[in-house]
Specification:
This protein is mainly alpha-helical. The chain starts with 6 loop residues before the first helix and ends with a helix. The protein is elongated. The longest helix is centred in the first third of the chain and has 18 residues. Helix content is about 75%, strand content about 0%. It has one domain.
């Protein structure tokens, strides 16, 4: 179990947010509703979706590495 206030928990949260926003960006209805705002607090989701789309290979490798590390080395 990952503590939400540790560095591990922060990395897991950021990676899951990027992955989720990257997949939600492919759904047209959610794209209009969720990613229309590019500034402010809601802009975080837009920026996370851009990162998830453009750096999909790096994000996938990071997720697999983090999963391995949490499952076996922690």
């Amino acid at each position: 179990m990952v503590n939400a206030y540790s560095f591990d928990g922060l990395i897991v949260f950021v990676l899951l947010t990027i992955c989720t926003c990257g997949y939600m960006r492919r759904v047209p209805k959610l794209r209009e509703w969720f990613f229309s705002e590019k500034k402010g607090f809601a802009g975080i989701f837009y920026k996370a979706s851009i990162i998830g789309t453009r750096l999909s290979l790096v994000v996938a490798i990071s997720c697999a590495t983090m999963a391995f590390w949490l499952a076996f080395l922690r």
